[in-house]
Amino acid sequence: MKEWFTRWLNGDLELLEHVSDASEIPDSPREELKTKRKEFRQRIYDRPDMDSIIRAEQKGFLAIYHTIAIISCVVLIGVLLFTVAHLPRYGEENPYTMEVVERYVEHGVEETGAVNIVAGMILDYRAFDTLGESHVLFTALVCVMILLKLDKKTIRGGYLDSYYTVKQDTYFDVSKDTIIRLAGTVLVPCIVLFGIYVLLNGQNGPGGGFSGGAIMGAALIMFATAFGFDRMDRVFTEKVLSLTVFFSLSFYCFAKGYVFFTGANGLDNHIPKGIPGAILSGGLILPLDIAVGMVVACTMYGFYSLFKRGSIGGA
Amino acid sequence: MEMKLIFRVILLILLIICAISVNLTRNLLQAVIIFMSYSSIMCILWILMESPDLAITEAAVGAGVSGILFLMTLKKVRQEEEAQKTENKLPDERKEA
Questions:
Q1: Is residue A23 part of a domain?
Q2: Looking at the predicted structure, is the pLDDT value of residue A300 above 50?
Q3: Residue B51's closest chain A neighbor by CA?
Q4: Interval A138-160 mean pLDDT
Q5: Interchain contact, B79 vs A161, CB within 8 Å
Q6: Which domain holds residue B17?
Q7: Which structural domain, as residue segments, surrounds residue A262?
Q8: Does residue A284 sit within a domain?
Q9: pLDDT at A27
């Protein structure tokens, strides 16, 4: 080190020498690596006693694997049966949660304005629960995007493997199929309409944000399958998806956060509860339902698109 | 009442059969389809237990979307397996194939 430093002081040593050296080392080409790997593999498999070694290893591994699997399965079944035996009987009143249920059943309609008590529960009394669920979905979408989205360098074809370009999308494309197109033409509007109905009637009947959103997401998937991604990309790009999800989640967050921080009587007082049973009833429940439904529908379509072609489109 | 009970017991038995046979099937495509039928049976059971909210969600997510995602994954895995096979062959063999 010292010697190196004195040489540099005397002006004998060029500091950038090593840097320029490094840049001249060529990247090891892919083909060479592949052949090396193949030779290595061949050398391993060419050993005469390889078969017996592999078989013995597999035998020991399978024995341990099966024992552990059976033991953990039996333990899990035992624990679950033990828990089930201690549950209250079906349809009987549970003494531990009785007070809450009483409150929900007796004052639910009057306090939340929703005929469907379940909707009143999940979007009014326990709205933060549902907020967490929507964020779980959003996080899942982000994770899928991290794992499966093709970056621009890959799309440009720099490091594409041979098989990926050959049979990417057109090979398995079914959107030219007449039967699927006709079925899509008939079914997609009906499914979308049903999804909207379920979404808007969350406070009056079974349904709500999650179910309605899932149905609409299924309709989007069906449209993309029947008519191809090109038509879908005209309207539904990645920007649209991220904006929709962002505004839905932040609307939910701010509206419900405001209500909770003002002692559960802030924003609710500004929105009329309406007559229980009408579509415009339930105060804040309907907008929250729509927000959750948007998030779920976008997430479902985003999953499908990312699984199928590695991008949501538009970019 | 009797009929309802018998119906429910039949559905529960089918549910258990589906759950076990998903694990025992070697063919992955069959496993996905059995999983989807499991979700459909569960959907009917939710209706019998008087929670239609869950039934709608189960039908849309369990039998619909997650099944489609499984099928997509299966397709992709097979595609890569095929490509791996052709890649492992020597160049002369690849020409023949």
A1: no
A2: yes
A3: A206
A4: 75
A5: no
A6: 2-96
A7: 115-309
A8: yes
A9: 59
CB A314 within 8 A of CB A307: no
- Size of the A and B interface in Cβ pairs below 8 Å: 58
Q: What is the mean pLDDT of residues B13-28?
A: 92
Number of domains forming the structure of chain A: 1
Q: What is the mean pLDDT of residues A125-135?
A: 87
User: Cα(B55)–Cα(B43) distance, rounded to whole angstroms?
Assistant: 5
* Contacts of residue A50, Cβ cutoff 8 Å, sequence gap at least 6: A44
Residues of B in contact with A115 (CB under 8 A): none
A205 CB neighbours in chain B (<8 A) are: 52
CB contact under 8 A, A163 and B80: yes
Helix (H) or strand (E) holding A132: helix A127-148
For residue A151, tell me if it sits in a domain: yes
Residue at token pair 């594409």: A160
Q: Among A114-128, A168-182, B34-48, which stretch is predicted with the lowest mean pLDDT?
A: A168-182
Q: What is the mean pLDDT of residues A200-228?
A: 88
- Report chain A residues whose CB lies below 8 A from the CB of B68: 221, 304
Element (H, E) at A229: helix A229-235
